[in-house]
């Protein structure tokens, strides 16, 4: 042991964030154990380490008694007073018992203890750092992959991206930089284990918080998110400030804000709709871009019947039912979509003024949209979308 140990402890304290006192206490405890084990000594001992002088001594601690039964732990009053005449019964006498070759054992023990403590402290620091970032977004670098996982470097640690949390339209290559959502941080015997996702709805929410200052400062609030990762998502937004356009804030100038998020998610389509406490308005908004004539609400069953123009039925339902399915997830309401003609045949008549007014130019634009986009659905049947049939939003 030399003064170099002091320099090493100072470096550890600075670089690893490990207190010098914590390491010294661990070294002292380990040296006591090593002394007893290597020299077959059972007495109560104390280790005195002088970092400045680079010295180390072992002291046996013995209690002063009238009659000695265990000389390893006790000393007679007469023997104690030969050392110091002021000793009394029940005082503790310290006698130096440092072995000649104890320095070599101490150095080996200190190395093992320091290495172990550094490892434990690093794990603790990493765990404390990342446990506070659960449900947050981070940028990582793809390192490697196997059939089950992709391993993403987050700087101090590698996170695990399971196959079911990977976007189906993405291919990951080593050294790719990707944004991931931290879903879970676990403490294991081998250190912290971090699980991340590219499909979690929280990733979309955090991306909007990054891109939209109004969301970050609380002026605009994201009320709900429905996502089918890699394909299409819907988010509902609201602002208590009547002078703030919540939807426009998220879209950004010429769509720049939402486009940045679309690019990050490799082309995933995003519908931004205005939230409303009125389920009639909210459900109608959620079915965007289709137009809605009326929404009939059944509060008891938390269900709605939505009436749309005949030519809008396929758009309201969406490709393979996606638009209606996402709307049901977004609102939390069951949605039964009917065309206007089918609703009238069933004795359901929309209100005279539709929820969303539109003119002939709108009709022509929507018809043109329908001709250009194949939704692969049968518009002759009513489609019922029940949120109970879907996985709960995470």
UniProtKB/TrEMBL annotation:
A biological process from GO: transcription antitermination
GO cellular component, one term: cytosol
SMART domains (UniProt xref): KH, S1
InterPro entries: KH_dom, KH_dom-like_a/b, KH_NusA_2nd, KH_sf_prok-type, NA-bd_OB-fold, NusA_N_sf, S1_domain, TF_NusA
GO molecular function: DNA-binding transcription factor activity; RNA binding
Domain S1 motif: 135-199
Subcellular location: Cytoplasm
Protein origin, superkingdom: Bacteria
Record keywords, A-Z: Cytoplasm, RNA-binding, Transcription, Transcription antitermination, Transcription regulation, Transcription termination
Function per UniProt: Participates in both transcription termination and antitermination.
Subunit structure: Monomer. Binds directly to the core enzyme of the DNA-dependent RNA polymerase and to nascent RNA.
Family stated for the protein in its record: Belongs to the NusA family.
The name this protein goes by in its record: Transcription termination/antitermination protein NusA
Organism, scientific name: Niallia endozanthoxylica
């Amino acid at each position: 042991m030399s003064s170099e140990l002091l320099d090493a402890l100072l470096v550890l304290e600075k670089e690893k964030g490990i207190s010098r006192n914590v390491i010294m206490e661990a070294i002292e405890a380990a040296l006591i154990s090593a002394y007893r084990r290597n020299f077959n000594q059972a007495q109560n001992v104390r280790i005195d380490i002088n970092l400045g002088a680079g010295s180390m001594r072992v002291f046996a601690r013995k209690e002063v008694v009238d009659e000695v039964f265990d000389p390893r732990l006790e000393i007679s009053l007469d023997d104690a007073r030969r050392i110091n005449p002021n000793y009394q019964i029940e005082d503790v006498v310290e006698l130096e018992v440092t072995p000649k070759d104890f320095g070599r054992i101490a150095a080996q023990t200190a190395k093992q203890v320091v290495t172990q403590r550094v490892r434990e402290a690093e794990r603790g620091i990493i765990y404390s750092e990342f446990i506070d970032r659960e449900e947050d977004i981070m940028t990582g670098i793809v390192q490697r992959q196997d059939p089950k996982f992709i391993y993403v470097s987050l700087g101090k640690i590698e996170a695990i991206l399971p196959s079911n949390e990977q976007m189906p339209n993405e291919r990951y290559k080593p050294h790719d930089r990707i944004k991931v959502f931290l879903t879970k941080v676990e403490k294991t015997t081998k250190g912290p284990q971090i699980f991340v996702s590219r499909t979690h709805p929280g990733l979309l929410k955090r991306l909007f918080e990054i891109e939209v200052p109004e969301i970050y400062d609380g002026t605009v609030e994201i009320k709900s998110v429905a996502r089918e990762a890699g394909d299409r998502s819907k988010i509902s937004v609201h602002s208590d400030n009547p002078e703030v356009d919540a939807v426009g804030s998220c879209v950004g100038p010429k769509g720049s804000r939402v486009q940045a998020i679309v690019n990050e998610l490799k082309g995933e389509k995003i519908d931004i709709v205005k939230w409303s406490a009125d389920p009639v308005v909210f459900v109608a908004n959620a079915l965007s871009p289709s137009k809605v004539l009326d929404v009939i609400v059944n509060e008891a069953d938390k269900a709605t019947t939505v009436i749309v123009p005949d030519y809008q039925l396929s758009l309201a339902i969406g490709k393979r039912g996606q638009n209606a399915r996402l709307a049901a997830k977004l609102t939390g309401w069951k949605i039964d979509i009917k065309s206007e003609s089918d609703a009238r045949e069933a004795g359901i008549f929309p209100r005279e003024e539709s929820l969303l007014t539109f003119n002939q130019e709108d009709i022509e634009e929507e018809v043109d949209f329908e001709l250009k986009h194949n939704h692969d659905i049968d518009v002759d049947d009513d489609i019922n979308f029940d949120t109970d049939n879907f996985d709960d939003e995470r």
